[in-house]
Amino acid sequence: MIQYFRTAFFFLLILSLAAFGANAASAQTLALVGAKVYSSPNADPLNDAVVLVSGGVIVNVDKRADVKIPKDARVIDCTGKTIVAGFWNNHIHLTEPAWNNAASAPAAVLEKHMQEMLTRWGFTTVWDLGSDPNNSLALRRRVDSGEVPGPKILLAGTIFPKNGHPVYLPPELQLPEAATPEEATQMARDDMKMGLDAMKLFTGAFMGDKPVINMDTAIVKAAVDVAHAQGKPVFAHPQNRVGVDNAIAGGVDVLAHTIPSEPNYTAEELARFKSQHTALIPTLTLWTTIVRDSDVTAHLVQSGVDQLETFAANGGPVLFGTDTGFTTNYDTSQEYDLMHRALPAGEILASLTTNPAAYFKATKKGRVENGFDADLVVLDADPSTDVHNLAKVAYTIRNGQIIYQKP
Predict the structure, then answer these.
(1) What angle do CA 120, 123, 128 make, to 5 degrees?
(2) What is the pTM of this model?
(3) Pairing relation of β-strands 82-85 and 279-280?
(4) Is 174 buried (19+), middle (13-18) or exposed (0-12) by CB count in 10 A?
(5) Count of CB atoms within 10 A of residue 185's CB?
(6) pLDDT tens, residue by residue, 322-353
(7) Is residue 61 within 8 Å of residue 50, measured between CB atoms?
(8) Could you tell me the sign of the dihedral formed by the alpha carbons of 107, 24, 89, 247, in that order?
(9) SS3 label, residue 355
(10) Distance CA 176, CA 217 (A)
(11) 85 DSSP β-pair partners
C-alpha cells in the first residue's frame, strides 16, 4: 500500500512539473527586435521596432529606443524583417493520411506535417471545413495542450444533399446526406453536441458528367437555424449559381469558393451579399488543379478573379483560404499572386488577419497591438512591396510560443 501511494505521488509530481513547465513557457517574455511592424494592414509601418510578448499577450509595441527589454527576455533579432499579425487559413481539410490516428500518432510526426502544411506558411488559426472528427478533435486536443505545436483549430461539421456524393470523394466514404429539413436539423445538432464550431453545407455537389445536385433552401435553412441558435457560423460549398442562391436564401454566412464555371455575380446576388454580410473565400489556386486543358484552366482562374474583384468592390469581407488538405499544394505563393490580380497587397493581408478576426468575433486577434493575443508572423521581407513576401516566413508565433522557425 505504501508503495502504491509513493507511485501515485510520484506520478502526480511529474504531472505538476509538466504543467508548471508549460505555464512557465507560456509566461516567458519574448522580444522581437529591430523589425518593421504593421499593426494592421492599413497602418503605416513602425520601423526599427520592438514587439514585446509576455504570458501569450503583446505587452508593448514601440520604437526600439523607447522599449526597455527585461533582462530575462528571449531576444530575437528581426533586423530587416517585417512583423504582421498571425495568419488565418479559413479553408483547410485535416484529411490526409498523415492525420490518421491523431490521438496516438507520434507527436514528432504530426508536428512535421503541421509545419509542411500550415505553420511553415504563417498560419496561427485555421478553419477545417470537413474531416473525420475522430482525428481532428484528437489533433486539436494535442495542439491545445502544447504537445504538438500548431495553430488554433476550428472545426466544421458537414452535410451533403441526398444522393450528392461528389465524384472526387472516395465512393466508400460514408457522407452525412440530408433528404429533409428534419434530417439536416438532427445532423447539425449532433455536430454541435460533438463540440464542432460551425457547419459546412454542400449546397452544390459535383457529379461529373451528371447534373450538379443542389441542396434545397429549406434544408439549408434548417441547418443554419441550428448553428445560428448557438452563435456558430455556417459555410457553404456552392457548385453553381443555384447553389449560391440557395445558400444565401437559407442564411449561410460564408461562401467557401467562387463559382468560376458560372458568369459573374448578379446585381441581385451582390445586394443580398451586402445586406446579409456574406463573406467569400476565393480559393483561386484550386481552379488550376481541376482540369488538364490549359485554356479551360486560364478561363476558370480569370472567372474566379473577376468574381473576387466584383465581390470585394461590393464591400464584402474576403477571407483567405486554400482548400489545403484536399489539394497538396501547401505553398501559398500562387494564391497571393492570383488574389493580387483583383486586390491590392493591403487587402490580401487583411484577408489573412483583420477580416477573419472581425468576422468571427476574435476580438483579441488580427492586429499587432498592446493587449492582443501574441499571434504573429515574422516575414523575411515587406509584403507591401511584393505580395509573394507573405509566403516568406521566418517565424510563426502563436500565443507567444514559436510554432515554426525557418531552418
Answers:
(1) 115
(2) 0.93
(3) unpaired
(4) exposed
(5) 17
(6) 999 999 999 999 999 999 999 999 999 999 99
(7) yes
(8) positive
(9) helix
(10) 17
(11) 376
